[in-house]
Amino acid sequence: MRIFTFMRPLYKTTIGYRIRVVGMNPAAAKAAGIDAGRIFVIAFLISGSLAGMAGFTEVNGVQHMLVQGFNPTIGAEGIGIAILANANPIGIIFGAVLFGALKVGGQILGQTSGIPSSIIEIMEGFVMLFVLISYYFRRRIEIRREIKKLKSEPV
After folding, report:
1. Is 70 helix (H, G, I), strand (E, B) or coil?
2. What is the pLDDT of residues 66-93, one digit of tens each?
3. Residue 62, SS3 per DSSP
4. In whole angstroms, how far apart are CA 114 and each of 7, 76, 123, 144?
5. Which CA distances in Å does 79 have to 39, 86, 121?
6. Are residues 138 and 151 in the same domain?
7. Are residues 12 and 78 in the same domain?
8. What is the span of the domain harbouring residue 82?
């Protein structure tokens, strides 16, 4: 539920607004007078700090050391979840629950039926593939609508 702690500043402060604007369209942000380079650095510092805190809690967990078998793909899964959620903080919660349920289900499936748990990674890959394909087709539809609109306008 820490996501709500970070959602408020992102949606209720000027720096949060600027981060969202630069993230959506850096060229438009520059045209509006926002220093996109500075905002990128601020966003990277914030995200790096959050990643550092997450890494600290992982290492400082139960065993107080980085254990063998640590999952090095956590960052990639986080990127996948963010893409799945379309970078929406509420959607990230649901995406994380979905991927977590897939992971746990894969472990149980591997223990009970002998099917390798790596099949879940393939399923996650397909989920990501379908999400990215849907983004592609949505963008194509938007472009076609814009072209149609421009063709119908008088010159």
Report:
1. coil
2. 777 777 777 778 888 888 888 788 888 8
3. coil
4. 41, 26, 17, 48
5. 20, 10, 14
6. yes
7. no
8. 71-155
